[in-house]
Each structure stands twice: as structure tokens, then as C-alpha cells.
From TrEMBL:
Protein known as: HECT-type E3 ubiquitin transferase
Catalytic residues identified in the record: 130 (glycyl thioester intermediate)
Reaction it catalyzes: S-ubiquitinyl-[E2 ubiquitin-conjugating enzyme]-L-cysteine + [acceptor protein]-L-lysine = [E2 ubiquitin-conjugating enzyme]-L-cysteine + N(6)-ubiquitinyl-[acceptor protein]-L-lysine
Stored InterPro entries: E3_ubiq-protein_ligase (IPR050409), HECT_dom (IPR000569), Hect_E3_ubiquitin_ligase (IPR035983)
SUPFAM superfamilies assigned to the protein according to its UniProt record, in alphabetical order: Hect, E3 ligase catalytic domain
Any Gene Ontology biological process: protein ubiquitination
Keyword Magnesium listed: no
Lineage: Eukaryota, Haptista, Haptophyta, Prymnesiophyceae, Phaeocystales
Length: 156
């Protein structure tokens, strides 16, 4: 129990953003942290702990911060049309493909870059998940892009 409680307190301290100010090994942390959990719904706690599901709003947020290279503008426009038409599960797969996470960070996404990639219809998009970047070939049509995304969400 003691080790599990310690991990729980440390996780809470990290998530809430007070890691530099509080020692999670201090038993007093449990006394003042625990009552606040009752103020949160299970959904709010899950969001704080592991981020939010990838909603259409999360995709719109990604789109709003996206920097699109001029050579990739047409493909980027097709990409947003395709991704916005996906179901929740496919959106999660796409989000994981381009960011490395299947859930939206609780603080949101702050950057995303779409750039050109050599190759045509036979090439696949290439994601740099650590950098929130996607390199896309110049596809001849929206249908080819959808197919290269695995029928929907980035890698099948």
C-alpha cells in the first residue's frame, strides 16, 4: 500500500504541476490532496491524468496551430477534410500517428507542421511524432491521400 500511495501522490503532484514545490514522499501531501479528488468527476480526473479524447475540436485546434509549407497546401486542405470526416477511433489513430499520443494533451497542442515530401501517389506520408510534424507527398487526388492514410486514420 505505501508504495502504491507514494506513486499515486507523485503522479498527482506531476499532473497538477506542483512537482517543484511539493515533496510527494511527505505524508501530508496525501492529507491535502485526497479531498480534492472528490471535487472532480471521473472524466475530469482522467483528462487531467492522461489527456482528452481526440474530438473534432482537438483536430480543429491542431489545424489552427498548423504551419503549412506552400508546396503542401493542397494536400493539407485534403488532409483536414479527411480527418474531420473520421470517427472517434480513427481520429485517435491519426492523432497518434502525427503526435505520438492517442489523446489530446490537457494543455492542448501548441504546434504542428505540414511539409512536402518527395514522391508521388506511391509514397506514404511521414510523421515526426516528437516534433508534431507531417511530411506529405504531392498526391494527385484526395482519394489517394485517404488510401495512403490507411483508409482513414494514419497507418490503418
Amino acid at each position: 500500500y505505501t508504495e502504491a500511495a507514494m506513486h499515486f501522490r507523485k503522479g498527482f503532484v506531476d499532473v497538477v504541476g506542483i512537482a517543484g514545490h511539493v515533496d510527494p514522499r511527505d505524508p501530508a501531501v496525501g492529507r491535502w490532496v485526497t479531498p480534492y479528488f472528490f471535487l472532480l468527476s471521473s472524466e475530469e480526473l482522467a483528462t487531467l491524468w492522461s489527456g482528452a479524447p481526440v474530438s473534432i475540436a482537438a483536430i480543429e485546434e491542431l489545424r489552427a496551430v498548423a504551419e503549412v509549407h506552400p508546396e503542401a497546401r493542397t494536400q493539407a486542405a485534403w488532409l483536414w477534410e479527411i480527418v474531420l470526416s473520421l470517427d472517434d477511433q480513427q481520429r485517435g489513430k491519426f492523432f497518434r500517428f502525427v503526435t505520438g499520443s492517442s489523446r489530446r494533451p490537457s494543455a492542448g497542442v501548441t504546434s504542428f507542421r505540414i511539409g512536402p515530401k518527395s514522391g508521388g501517389d506511391g509514397a506514404y506520408p511521414f510523421a515526426h511524432a516528437c516534433a508534431n510534424a507531417l511530411d506529405m507527398p504531392s498526391y494527385s487526388s484526395r482519394a489517394v491521400l485517404r488510401e495512403r492514410l490507411g483508409g482513414g486514420g494514419g497507418g490503418g
